[in-house]
Amino acid sequence: MGSKFLFAVAALLAATPAAGAVTVIGNSSARLCYEAAESRGIPNVHILRTCDDALRQDALSDYDMVATLVNRGILKARLGDIDQAIVDYDAALRRDPNEAEAYLNKGFALLHLPDAALQARPMFDSALAKKTRRPELAYYGRAVANELTGQVRAAYEDYRQASLLDPKWKDPKADLARFRVR
Questions:
Q1: CA 56 to CA 65: how far, in whole Å?
Q2: pLDDT tens digits in sequence order for the chain, 182 residues long
Q3: CA pair distance 102, 125, nearest whole angstrom
Q4: Which of 4, 15, 60, 104 has its CA 20 to 30 A from that of 166?
Q5: Is the pTM of this model over 0.85?
Q6: What's the start-to-end Cα distance of the chain, in Å?
Q7: Whole-angstrom Cα distance, residue 31 to residue 50?
Q8: How many CB atoms lie within 10 A of CB 174?
């Protein structure tokens, strides 16, 4: 694998976890946690305390509890605390095994870990099966996992699908250009 590809993977992984934020309605700590996860900026540790407060103090519905766990996981992943982000995604999945965005974000978190691409692929499969709101990201993440594990044909097909789902997104197109179809 070329250094250009690995750099692209690192750039993608730094940028994508926000795309899987789970909406929380209202004026609460959980809502502030969601807004921070949805933003593209680098979070500060202070916002994590807001998420913690929401989980401890707010009277959250089951949906909002799961959403806040996913959103806090996104923020932890952005801060580089991948292991703790995965803990949050797993906690969300224990509460709601059908939360597609938890699978999506866990897949991207796993791609940050050495030799975890094989574990990431089923996360993207589950995100797609459970109808993630951002299927183009799930296809793209699965393409990266496939490429890292030597599944070149499957990677090509997933990059292609990501590009078809979001024709304005440049990354899948750039990755497709690296392939030679015979």
A1: 10
A2: 444 444 445 445 544 444 567 676 655 889 899 999 998 888 888 999 999 999 998 688 999 999 999 999 999 999 999 999 999 999 999 999 999 999 999 999 999 999 999 999 999 999 999 999 999 999 999 999 999 999 999 999 999 999 999 999 999 999 999 998 77
A3: 12
A4: 4
A5: yes
A6: 20
A7: 9
A8: 13
